[in-house]
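At this stage, I needed to go through a protein sequence along with its fold in token form, as given directly below:
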Amino acid sequence: MTWRRALVVGLVLVGGGDVARVERAPLPYSRPLRDPVVLTSDWLASWIDLRSIDPDSRAFLFELQLSALSRANAIRKQTGIPGDLGTAALVAMTAGPDKDYLLKIARRESAMNPWARADRSSAAGLFQFTENTWLCMVLQAGPQFGVKTSFRLVRTDDGRCRTPDSAERSRLLALRYDPVLSTKLAVALTSINDKQFVDSFGRLPSDNERYVLHVFGADGGTRLLQLAAAKPDLVAASILPAAARANPSLFYDGRGHARSVAEVVITLER
């Protein structure tokens, strides 16, 4: 056993993980995560910055990581890391100073399930990125995290982000299911939203205000928060009709009564 393997085994044992070996299966070491059923050792290696380790050692490390997260059968079932402690660990180790906030958002948005999809909108992944928001974040922040596009991805005059190739669009949208990349872009999105909030209100947002911006976008969230302070009784669905159609339980109570802008903000704080 090499010193690297011995070190990893020691760390896993100290952490209380189950180090039972995963049944060997061919792994595509050179491909990053591209869709919900492909999870590779290279993907995990990029997270922990161990690309310099030889493939066999990296595969061994990958197996130990999965075992330590009590999911040693994840490779065999080809379901990726389930939405529980394993995903929470990835988010916490990726999010940096924002980890506590982003862990709360991931739990609320997807119950920590990387494969979660919304019924009424295009939202998907840990942080429920809609298709347009995700593509815009890929355009704005993706390159710094190694996301490469084969075709031109542009932001149009109406604020939407598009690529002329449908296959490329599908590939980019599938990256929402990568919990590490999704967390990195959630960090970038939070930073953008924070800046717009500071520009509008002259102070940093609370975590509840951050969540409003996450749900409705920087523009919609800022408008909702401004109206909640200035005209709290306005019907929220009249201000954000598209969001109301996608999230009726947020804009209407159990009896079907429309909530005000102030009530929607309070509901998001629960």
Observations:
- Residues 207-230 form the longest helix (24 residues).
